[in-house]
Amino acid sequence: MTYQHKQKERQNRETYSRRVSGGNCNRITVPMQNIKHMETVVKKFREIADDFENQLNDKSRPQFRKVSYAKYSLYALHRELIETADESYHNIRGLDFKGTR
User: Residue 26: its pLDDT value, please?
Assistant: First the structure.
């Protein structure tokens, strides 16, 4: 990956993260190249589902705060899944998630 490509990718990620709270929906990229990816996704989805359940049951927080928290949590999950799946972050050759788009 060239330096310019990495810079553009970082710029796009930062721009999207600034806009994440303004939209009506969120996307999550779910890498599925091997069993390790599947295990990570299952674990993280269970964690976020439990967290959302706790948020729904919390009567002390207003609805807009719950929704804002959920949007941020989904974006954080999206980033975490991509970064843990991108083996180039860990200097392992052969399994680069970025090349699968």
Answer: 76
- CA-to-CA distance for 39 and 32, rounded, in angstroms? 10
Average pLDDT per 10 consecutive residues for the chain, totaling 101 residues: 78 70 74 87 96 94 90 89 72 53 45
pLDDT at 44: 95
Alpha-carbon separation of residue 41 from 6, 31, 38, 58, 80 (angstroms): 25, 8, 5, 26, 10
CB 97 within 8 A of CB 33: yes
Q: What is the phi/psi pair of residue 3, to 5°?
A: -60, -40
- Helix, strand or coil, per DSSP, at residue 96: coil
CA nearest neighbour of 52 among 77, 34, 15: 77
Question: Token pair for residue 29?
Answer: 């990229």
Identity at 29, one-letter amino acid code:
T
In the chain, domain spans: 31-100
Tokens 């599925």 map to which residue? 32
